[in-house]
Design brief:
By secondary structure, this protein is an alpha/beta fold. It has 14 helices and 16 strands. The chain has a seven-stranded parallel sheet, with helices on both faces. Strands 5-4-3-6 form a four-stranded parallel sheet, with helices on both faces. A three-stranded antiparallel sheet has the order 1-2-16, with no helix packed on it. Helix 6 links the parallel strand 3 and strand 4.
């Protein structure tokens, strides 16, 4: 969100004692996590099938709730990009249901043997996937995260405690109600997916503190302010990326038609997603061929460009780029553009200003592409494809609970496998240690 909304009035939403309510949520989620860890794959899949069916059947109720949320957000001064993230329509609701169906069809990761070996003393050791336990998810504006996060956690055998944004409160409740229908149908505890029943921001602090040991990992999904707070205050491990300063580098040996298609899609398909391109870099050796067409295309599409001297010379409509622009995640129809001296300079620029999220190169030069893919230190790097593919659904995960840019445990889209840990199983025949 590029401009803060006006303060949203927060009632108690029917919660008389927040501390007691949150404690109870934690206790029930911990109990549900134990049940899910032992639940057969068929039971979890039955719940997921029920959820997809219920979401489709609840389309009218979900759309009505979302209309109320969007009306309130618009009145509070939300930007068009924010409203796009908040908005639902029939196609997006169907996509939610389709995502759950895709997750249902994935192989159950729980119990998968990752590696096995036999020691000289005859003991057999196995490393086996296990659920994380209870996953806390705090997210802003996008109500579809309710379905994505709940379904992914369930498939991986985890309980989920979800706290959606105040602006999407009604939409999240409507989606969650459909998710609960699937849980009940499969005979799983309703607390397997819990939506925090209040917009009171104190609930966030309680989740970050771990709900008295109930939460095992936190996942923030939202803007820089939210993610920064979670990373600073959380008392449990965090899967997160602070921001998505994504780049598209157009090499001198790119095809113009391909470069135009990728750049336009990477920036303008949906400007408010974390995989949207925020910086365009053009190889100086190809600037005469690429710069004017790419700049004119973006400007004509309604995108503001903030550029260096070379880019400004290509089109008088380009505004000068400030130093801070190169590291800014706009989440809007704005892009920073500059000319660099080849692939090495592009990699250096991305290392200096990027956020290690998603970066792409457009080129027909295999050597340059391989160098970019090898040396750019980002969770996702692409060759001749749009940065908007930074999405768990596009990776075949069905959905994602978020994109992690750290280097511990999970990196990139966090799907079913990334929501598991592992344990060691050892089978012996009476061995004792000398």
């Amino acid at each position: 969100m590029n401009a803060p909304l006006k303060a949203v009035p927060v009632a108690n939403d029917g919660v008389a004692n927040l501390a007691a309510t949150m404690r109870e949520i934690g206790v029930k989620a911990r109990s549900a996590a134990r049940a899910l860890a032992l639940a057969p794959a068929a039971t979890k899949n039955r719940a997921l099938a029920g959820m997809a069916k219920a979401i489709r059947a609840s389309r009218a109720a979900i759309l009505a709730a979302n209309a109320e949320d969007r009306t309130a957000a618009k009145a509070a001064g939300a930007t068009p990009a924010f409203l796009d993230r908040l908005g639902l329509d029939a196609a997006r609701i169907e996509a939610m249901a389709d995502g759950i169906e895709t997750i249902r069809k994935l192989k159950d990761p729980v119990g998968t043997v990752l590696a096995s070996w036999r020691r000289p003393n005859g003991m057999r050791i196995e490393r086996v996937r296990e659920p994380l336990g209870v996953v806390g998810v705090i997210y802003e504006s996008r109500p579809n995260v309710t379905a994505d996060a709940g379904a992914l956690c369930l498939k991986a055998g985890n309980a989920a405690i979800l706290r959606g944004g105040s602006e999407s409160f009604r939409s999240c409740r409507a989606i969650h109600a459909a998710m609960v229908e699937g849980l009940i149908e499969a005979g799983l505890p309703e607390a397997a997916i819990t939506l925090v029943p209040t917009r009171d921001r104190e609930a966030v602090g309680m989740m970050l503190a771990g709900l008295h040991g109930a939460i095992d990992v936190m996942v923030p999904r939202g803007g820089k302010e939210l993610v920064g707070r979670v990373q600073t205050e959380a008392r449990v491990p965090v899967f997160a990326h602070l921001e998505g300063v994504c780049h598209v580098y157009v090499d001198a040996k790119a095809k113009l038609a391909m470069a135009k298609a990728i750049v336009l899609n990477a920036k303008m398909r949906r400007t408010g997603v974390c995989g949207a391109a925020e910086t365009l870099l053009v190889d100086r050796a190809g600037a005469e061929k690429f710069l004017k067409p790419l700049v004119a295309m973006l400007l004509d599409a309604g995108c503001e460009i903030r550029g260096d001297a070379a880019v400004r010379a290509a089109d008088r409509r380009v505004k000068p780029a400030a130093e801070s622009d190169w590291s800014t995640e706009y989440l809007d129809a704005i892009i920073t553009a500059g000319v660099v001296d080849g692939v090495d300079a592009a990699i250096a620029h991305i290392e200096r200003y990027g956020s290690h999220h998603t970066d792409a190169i457009v080129t027909e030069d295999k050597k340059a592409a391989d160098k970019f893919l090898r040396e750019v230190d980002s969770a996702i790097v692409l060759h001749n494809a749009s940065t908007q593919f930074a999405d768990g659904g596009e990776f075949g995960f069905g959905a994602e609970i978020g994109i992690a840019t750290g280097r511990m445990h999970a990196r990139g889209p966090v799907g079913v496998e990334q929501l598991t840990s592992f344990k060691y199983r050892i089978r012996g025949t009476g061995q004792t240690r000398p």
